[in-house]
Every structure is written in C-alpha cells, then in structure tokens.
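Human
Can I borrow your eye for a moment on a structure tokenisation matter? Give me a protein, with the fold worked out from its sequence. Write it directly below this note and I will take it from there.

Assistant
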Amino acid sequence: MNFILTWLVTAVAAAFATWMVPGMQVMGGYMGIITFALAIALVNASVRPIMHLVSLPITILTLGIFHLVVNALALNIASWLSLNLFNVGVYVVDFWAALWGSIVISIVSAIVGSIVGVDEN
C-alpha cells in the first residue's frame, strides 16, 4: 500500500513539474505521467543510490550542491526509460529542465507526502 501511495504522490509531483518547468513535455497524457512516476521509482530504487555513492567525494567537496546534479541525471534516466520502454512518459529537453524539474518534484512530493502521510525512507 505504501508503494502505491508513494507512486501516486510522485505522479502528482511529476504532473506539477511538467506544468511548471517549460522544458518538460508530457507524451501520452495521464498514462505518460503515471509511467514516468513508475520510472522515477525504479531509478530511485536501483540506479540513484549507486550514483550517490560514486559521486560522494564530489558532493562533499561542493557541500552538497552536486547532489542536485545527481538528481537531475536520475530524472533524465527516468525520462529515457519511460519513453523508450513504454513509449509514453515525460520528455526532458535539456539538463537545466531536468535540474529544475528534479527540484520541483522533490519539493512537491515532500509537501504532498507530508499531507497524505507517506513515510520517506
């Protein structure tokens, strides 16, 4: 149940990000948003921890700012996965759109998750 609730919170945050960030475009309507949220969950569970571990020295040197770059790369990977595996998703135009999109998704999912009561691990 917690996974489904987290998935829905991520879908709401991704929909808000595609509305706010000009460089993010939805391909496939609501199914694209839902598929993109699933791809974000898959990337966050598998690839993102490895990216954080590898980039730990750079993150420490930049006092945590490089963490935003890792989140933007994870968002680009999720976009690529959703579009190439499922043929629907969110197209991220460039790195800056991914950076702003990851910031918006993080903030909105934290706010909506706290309202709904989703525990972030």
In short: Helices lie at 2-20, 29-54, 56-61, 66-86, 95-116. The mean pLDDT is 91.
